[in-house]
Automatic annotation (TrEMBL):
UniProt keywords, alphabetically: Membrane, Transmembrane, Transmembrane helix
Keyword Signal assigned: no
Protein name (record): ABC transporter permease
Signal peptide stretch: none
Domain of life: Bacteria
The keyword Membrane is annotated on this UniProt entry: yes
TM helices/strands, residue ranges: 162-178, 199-221, 258-278, 285-303, 343-367, 544-565, 586-606, 643-666, 678-706, 718-737
Length: 748
């Protein structure tokens, strides 16, 4: 126990960990305090509605909410939308709960009966029998609707999940890797209690700090939700929350809130154990960060890309993303195909969690207590020695810095991995180019550009052709062809069906042409909007920010160790005594950073550019920017080509700025852990929060990296960002900058 307390003391003594947690706590508090469930509706309005909701009959709840809302909301449009649109659907779902459950059971019972289309005891038949019995315990529940904004915020707190993930990552690296950095790990392993007792002590320290941080972060979310909106009667059945009306478990709201927290805490403890295995197995801190990032990315990809009806859906429910999102398991009943038998996804997840935890603990103790230290980074170095040309001994400072970063620092390996991910991303984009979009683009290829009389004539003729085809189609359906004409009949019917597939795309083209003709700006043109939407990041925030996260993680792994590693080993003092050990060394590292940033930029965004070039051809680049529907409100006279160039220049220079910022952090950091922690906190975390909350799109470096600067960033954000960057570069430059200023002063 004393060893565990000592490990806990060492972790709490870490300034990096304490500063990180305080920053995450304050950020979590700010997000919870500013959370807006309905834009434009004040908290006072929601609180007053909540006060009277539990004491109001179901028939009067909507009218009471409307009368209260009218006192607080001045906007006539919002008055019509709220609370009708926000409350009415949820209220109806709760009111019709018993009818909905009975319909589900009735349909399941009907489909579970043997038929000519399903075999006896087939998986389909067993599935419907399972669904029929799943809702037996909750069919008589009497849910009571309450505007659960407080519980909704607590249940759907993806931003807090991301903060917890960052915290446990840093906690694990600090607890497991700090002794290796100081050389104490080898000494501790030789003591009587330096193996299994030391391993257990580190595990206990990580467990206690994980639980404490979860209590503080998630407790803050629940507390602010309670103060701002209230939680209602916690003894209500869980089906009272509209999101959980299809839940098949008989429990109260209060019980679920406790279960929700226990699930999340258990999930993060499993993540901690897995990370401890990686950090113990790997000798290099940078390698540990890289492997953890890859594992996290694979898990997130499996969870988001695999659908519930996929044959591989079990992979969706046995990874940490599902573990830390327990509401996905409770809000409805869902089962998996396990050896031909339907098994509840919740049951599978719980059993998998226990098995993974036990296996992870056994592997952790086995790795930690092994007779010799296992180093994967040594194996990677051996591989590099085979695939790289043997380097001649050289005193050239530039050659040594390049070798140290690219080979010893594994930056070359990181860049190769990023290039492979970029290629895979290109394959996914190609798969996502649907036939409907291709039909729309085929019309744009024929009549794109300025809307002229020829364009309108083409559309009129096309419309008449569709009408004639529909008449012919109806005529064919009423005919019974002779056997000799059957082949020609089918051919004509198939040709007509293929042509009718273009009708939706044709209607979209007609609507767009009508908008262009009715607009006062007669210069607008018909263009390939989908391709430009992809290039200009207006087709969806999440995909754009996932690419930004990939780019920043690559920069963190490549640039953070460049100077921090020398600081950690004490080599910086020696280098500073050499001829090029001060400002020139920093300048050389700056050039290397520029090259790495440029390579990452090309590897991440070139596949998207190539895809658009191949599929959309980027025609009509001289059209006004407002020709793109999503950018119609932009106040600029630029063409599409000019705007594309500007967006990508901003994105490119933002990448360079991020690289130089990380280099400055590396120079000011005493060790690798500090450099990685600061860079992840400042770059990866904000971009990750942009994925789960669009409110972060407008701050820090996020709008410039994502290409949304012109549409979301304020001038104040740009000024603050530039000041921070310049200030850090001046501080990192240190004496070199001071001497340069003095030389300039002497000349003038």
């Amino acid at each position: 126990m004393k060893i565990a307390l000592y490990e806990l003391y060492k972790a709490l003594k870490s300034k990096v960990l304490l500063i990180l947690f305080v920053a995450l706590f304050l950020l979590n508090l700010a997000l919870s305090a500013t959370y807006t469930p309905v834009l434009g509706v004040p908290d006072e309005c929601i609180r007053e509605i909540n006060k009277v909701y539990l004491s109001t009959s179901e028939e009067e709840k909507l009218s009471v909410a409307e009368s209260i809302a009218n006192k607080y909301i001045k906007d006539n449009v919002l008055q019509n939308i709220f609370p009708d649109k926000k409350y009415e659907d949820k209220l109806n779902r709760v009111k019709n709960y018993n009818t909905t459950i009975r319909n589900i059971k009735s349909e399941a019972e009907q489909r579970s009966k043997p038929s000519v289309f399903s075999k006896e005891n087939s998986f389909t038949q067993l599935s419907f029998k399972d669904i029929f019995t799943a809702y037996n315990n909750v069919i008589e529940n009497k849910p009571s609707f309450y505007p659960d904004y407080g519980t909704e915020r607590y249940i759907n707190s993806a931003d807090t999940d991301l903060m917890m993930l960052v915290f446990v990552l840093m906690l694990t690296v600090i607890v497991c890797c700090r002794d290796k950095m100081t050389g104490m790990a080898a000494v501790i392993r030789q003591t009587p209690k330096g193996r299994i007792h030391s391993a257990g002590a580190k595990l206990i320290a990580c467990f206690l700090l994980t639980v404490t941080s979860a209590v503080l972060l998630y407790g803050m979310v629940l507390l602010t939700g309670t103060i701002r909106f209230g939680l209602g009667d916690l003894s209500r059945c869980i089906q009272s929350i509209p999101q959980f009306t299809l839940c098949n478990i008989n429990m109260t709201v209060g019980e679920y809130l406790v279960i929700h927290f226990l699930f999340k805490t258990s999930a993060f403890f499993i993540v901690v154990v897995v990370m401890m295995i990686i950090c113990t197995f790997l000798k290099n801190v940078a390698a540990a960060f890289a492997v953890i990032s890859v594992c996290s990315g694979v898990s997130i990809w499996l969870y988001t890309s695999i659908s519930d009806i996929s044959a591989y859906n079990i992979l969706k429910y046995i990874n940490f993303c599902c573990f830390i999102s327990p509401h996905q398991l409770f809000y409805r009943y869902y089962h998996l195909n396990i050896f031909g038998k339907p098994v509840s996804a919740l049951t599978v997840c719980v059993i998998t969690t226990v098995i993974i935890l036990i296996m992870a603990l056994l592997i952790y103790f086995a790795v930690y207590c092994s007779r010799r230290a296992i180093s994967a980074s040594g194996k990677i170095s051996e591989i590099f020695s085979y695939i790289t040309v043997k380097r001649k001994l050289s005193a050239n400072f530039v050659v040594n810095e390049v070798y140290k970063t690219a080979i010893a620092g594994k930056a070359l390996l990181v860049l190769v991995v990023v290039a492979v991910i970029g290629f895979c991303n290109y394959q996914n984009m190609s798969a996502g180019y649907d036939s409907e979009q291709k039909r729309y683009d085929s019309y744009v290829a024929q009549i794109g550009g300025e809307v002229t009389d020829e364009t309108l004539l083409f559309l009129e003729n096309e419309k008449l052709e569709f009408e004639n085809i529909k008449l012919r189609y109806e005529e064919l359906l009423t005919q019974t062809p002779a056997e000799s004409d059957y082949e020609s009949y089918n051919k004509e019917l198939n040709d007509i069906t293929k042509k009718l597939d273009y009708e939706n795309a044709f209607n979209k083209i007609c609507d767009r042409v009508s908008v262009i003709k009715s607009d006062k700006n007669s210069n607008l043109q018909l263009v390939f909007e989908e391709g430009f939407n992809r290039l200009l990041s207006v087709s969806g925030y999440k995909d754009d920010f996932l690419m930004c996260i990939l780019a920043t993680i690559a920069l963190v792994l490549c640039i953070s160790p460049m100077i921090a590693f020398d600081n950690q080993r004490g080599l910086t003092k020696l280098l500073r005594t050499t001829e090029k050990g001060r400002i020139k060394r920093f300048a050389i590292d700056g050039v290397i950073t520029l090259v790495i940033s440029a390579i990452v930029f090309v590897a991440v965004w070139l596949p998207e550019f190539v895809f658009v070039m191949n599929n959309y051809k980027l025609s009509f680049l001289d059209a006004p920017l407002q020709s793109i529907t999503a950018l119609y409100g932009m106040q600029t006279n630029e063409t599409i080509l000019q705007y594309i160039i500007r967006v990508y220049l901003i994105r490119f220079f933002s990448m360079l700025a991020c690289g130089f910022f990380m280099l400055c952090v590396s120079k000011l950091s005493a060790n690798l852990i500090t450099a990685f922690s600061v860079n992840i906190l400042l770059f990866v975390l904000p971009l990750g929060l942009c994925v789960v909350s669009e409110s972060f799109v407008v701050i820090w470096i996020c709008p410039y990296l994502s290409g949304t600067a012109e549409r979301s960033a304020s001038p104040a954000n740009l000024i603050i960002t530039v000041i921070i960057f310049i200030g850090l570069i001046l501080v990192a430059g240190g004496e070199g900058v001071k001497k340069a200023v003095e030389k300039i002063g002497k000349r003038f």
